[in-house]
Amino acid sequence: MSDDTAFPPCPSCSSPYTYESGTLLVCPECAHEWTAGPAAAVPASESTSIRDAVGNVLADGDTVTVIKDLKIKGTSSVVKVGTKVKNIRLVGGDHDIDCKIDGIGPMKLKSEFVKKA
């Protein structure tokens, strides 16, 4: 391999030690794989952004409002429509919002049931 071929740093961890494997670029430090070319220029944060029920992009620390009564599994409690949830934290998975609701406690919510306040 010659030094003429320079691969871009990893978009996930910024490691300069990327290499080519077939049609993909691979990072040996975090095992992130991506395609070379224009698609690699899109920041990972934009391609995997979490959006609320109306399409607004959510971020850590945002305040959201619940748009539907949500039954809390295993209890008779309900999170009512219009409940404001402050200082959310975005996580991966099916329930992609981690938060603490006053009077109820820590919960995980789905972004499809909230609207950015």
From TrEMBL:
It holds the Pfam family YjdM. InterPro entries: YjdM, YjdM_C, YjdM_N. Signal peptide: none annotated. Residues 7-35 form the Protein YjdM N-terminal domain. Residues 50-117 form the Protein YjdM C-terminal domain. It comes from the Bacteria. Belongs to the YjdM family. This is Alkylphosphonate utilization protein. It comes from Gemmatimonas phototrophica.
